[in-house]
Amino acid sequence: MRNNLKIYRAIENITQKELADELGVSRQTIVLIENNKNDPSLELAFKIAHKFDVKIEDIFINDSNKK
């Protein structure tokens, strides 16, 4: 799954640490998500989308159905 988290974070001008603290996760979790090394839980994906006031699909893109 790809994501636009880094873009949304840049738009809001917040650091990985600031986002992590606000969401109650570690900075490493944000790093792993941004680098497509880890997919967030559904709960965390909703929290992220809510933080940026967008739909989950605006941040997270599911490529698994592409051929």
UniProtKB/TrEMBL annotation:
Keywords: DNA-binding
InterPro entries per record: Cro/C1-type_HTH, Lambda_DNA-bd_dom_sf
Gene Ontology molecular-function annotations: DNA binding
Matches recorded under Gene3D superfamilies: lambda repressor-like DNA-binding domains
Entry coiled-coil feature ranges: none
SMART domains per record: HTH_XRE (SM00530)
Name of the protein in its database record: Transcriptional regulator
